[in-house]
């Protein structure tokens, strides 16, 4: 059975970027990265989560961090040119990005937001990020993802 292409996958196709779609079993009670990593049989540090934050000066921005990490709000504020920042409320996620919790991809949000990818991504030949729906990940070379979304690397 062919996997249903997501908007994120179609954007990568259009740009000629190599990636692989990898399905996993969704558990609505456990949407965290640790469940995804377990389902994929992968190291939690290779499964990246996409977090959307709001800064006090520059508005919305995105941090892509390893599944084992929590975003450091002080560092996130500094790298995004803000004094303070906070995660957006989950209710805001869909209207602002077009994605839902557990299916938020750094690729193909409704608007292009400044994006920062944790430097540890570069330690791997490929990493996993959400394909834009629950139950589907994109396996992609980190530099290809960084270049495609125009991301900064952090911590700086």
Average predicted confidence as pLDDT: 94
Structural class from helices and strands? alpha/beta
The N- to C-terminal Cα distance equals: 43 Å
Sequence stretches where pLDDT stays below 50 over 5 or more residues: none
Helix content: 25-40%
Question: Main beta sheet: strand number and arrangement?
Answer: 5 strands, mixed
Enter the CATH topology name: YbaK protein
Folded structure, characterized:
This protein is of the alpha/beta class and 156 residues long. The protein has one domain: YbaK protein (Alpha-Beta Complex), CATH 3.90.960. It is 25% helix and 26% strand. The chain contains 5 helices and 8 strands, in the order αβαββαβαβββαβ. The protein has helices at residues 7-14, 33-40, 73-79, 90-97, 142-149, and strands at residues 19-23, 48-55, 59-66, 85-87, 115-118, 127-130, 136-140, 152-154. The strands form 2 sheets. It has a 5-stranded mixed sheet with strand order 4-2-3-5-8. Strands 1-7-6 form a 3-stranded antiparallel sheet. Strand 6 and strand 7 form a beta hairpin. The protein starts with 6 loop residues before the first helix and ends with a strand. The mean pLDDT is 94.
């Amino acid at each position: 059975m062919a996997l249903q292409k997501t908007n994120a996958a179609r954007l990568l196709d259009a740009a000629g970027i190599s990636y692989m779609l990898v399905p996993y079993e969704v558990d609505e009670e456990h949407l965290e990265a640790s469940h995804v990593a377990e389902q994929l049989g992968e190291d939690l540090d290779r499964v990246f989560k996409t977090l959307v934050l709001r800064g006090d000066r520059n508005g919305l921005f995105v941090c892509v961090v390893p599944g084992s990490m929590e975003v450091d709000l002080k560092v996130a504020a500094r790298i995004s040119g803000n004094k303070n920042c906070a995660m957006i409320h989950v209710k805001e996620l869909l209207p602002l990005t077009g994605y839902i919790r557990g299916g938020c991809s750094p690729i193909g949000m409704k608007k292009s937001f400044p994006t920062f990818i944790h430097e540890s991504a570069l330690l791997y030949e490929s990493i996993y990020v959400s394909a834009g729906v629950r139950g589907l990940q994109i396996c992609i070379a980190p530099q290809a993802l960084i270049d495609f979304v125009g991301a900064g690397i952090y911590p700086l």
